[in-house]
Amino acid sequence: MLPLAALFLASLSPAAAHSSAVFVIITFSLLLAYSWCAVPYEAWGVDLCAEPHDRSRMTAWREGAGIIGMLCALAMPALLTTLGWSLQEALRGTAILCALAFVATTVAALWFVPEVKSLSAAQQSWDILAPFRMAEFRRLNAAFILSGIGAAIPATVVLFYVEVYLGSSKGPLFLLAYFIAGVLALPMWVKLTKWSAKRTVWVAALAVNTLAFACIYLVEPGQELLYGALVSLSGLGFGATLAIPTSIQIDLIEEAARRSGIRSEGQYFGLWSFSRKASAALGAFVSLQVLGLYGYSTAEGLTPAIATVIRDLYILAPCIFMLAAALVALRLPVLEGSR
Fold it and tell me: What is the residue-averaged pLDDT of the chain?
């Protein structure tokens, strides 16, 4: 965590701001350091949770805390600027507070969280591709990637849609409502995993997210209240689309260890982290390429054709990917740990 804290500070330093090459190097190193922390941290959860329902609770708390932390980090610069700080000072202050939090929470975790092995003592595997030999993981990973692309496209286009198509300046408020709804609904989804198969709960969350999002197609420019209500409704399924598949993966990791006698949780979460980042990058890349292909430019103003492209890209494309993810997820077997 120490390299991550140092690189996060460096990413908002004046040197990074004035040199593209330095910024690229720092950003690459920052993401690499994040993976060094995230993979063992997430694999640690496999050791801590022996009961299937506890895994859903753990992943829900983890994803929910991540969303809250992201919102706090996004809000902090705005709060500091209202107190009279310059934008550069506010960003630097945010970086310092986050870096201190990185170190403090890591020390707290090492001090208070036990190192417990819930899996049977098994030989550790060094084969990075071992998870792909499990058909269930290939299906789960495919569904997770499709869901990730479906989430990344609107995340990239949302401000274009709100400002250009809806004609509103309240984009950050709509995002806040979406994320808050996702966090508040997490306990409900976790409760459902106690009574139903996890894959069913995941598909239900995808359905809530997708159906509410599809209804946004009916929103006309200027209808801020209707859009805000539908975005909040869509957000109810957001947190579960992150927490539940991760919980299913832990069930698969334990099942794989039982079948082979080999532990591979590091490999599973390493590939999981790669899939999460790859789907986000692919969704953002495709979205921006489509906008560029149709000639979108803020300097040239908005044409009816561009407005239609933004609306379809923001609403229809994610619905297609989410539906595909749900269809793949339905083919997942219901393991004993996934009930």
Answer: 87
